[in-house]
Design goal:
Layout lengths: L1 E3 L5 E3 L3 E4 L2 E4 L5 H10 L4 H9 L2 H17 L1
Length: 73
C-alpha cells in the first residue's frame, strides 16, 4: 500500500505479515473510505515516524482497527 503524507512524501508499505512460517495478508475493501478514516486518526509521533519509514506493523494494526470498525457497523 502506498501512503501519501501531508508534505507530499510517500511510503510504500507491505500489508502482509510473516509469523513463524504463516503468511497473513491484510487489506481494505474501500481504499477511499480507509484514507478518510486514516486521516482522522490521532497517531503518536512514533507511529507517524514508523509509517514514514515504511514499517508495516503500524499500518497492519491500523488496517485491523479499520476492518474491525467496518465489521461492527
Amino acid at each position: 500500500m502506498v501512503l501519501e503524507f501531508p508534505d507530499g512524501k510517500t511510503a510504500q508499505i507491505d500489508t502482509y505479515w510473516w509469523d513463524w512460517g504463516d503468511y497473513h495478508e491484510y487489506g481494505v475493501d474501500n481504499v477511499v473510505d480507509f484514507s478518510a478514516w486514516l486521516s482522522e486518526q490521532e497517531l503518536s509521533e512514533a507511529e507517524y515516524s514508523y509509517l514514514r519509514e515504511g514499517y508495516s506493523e503500524v499500518l497492519v494494526k491500523l488496517i485491523e482497527d479499520y476492518n474491525y470498525r467496518e465489521d461492527e457497523e
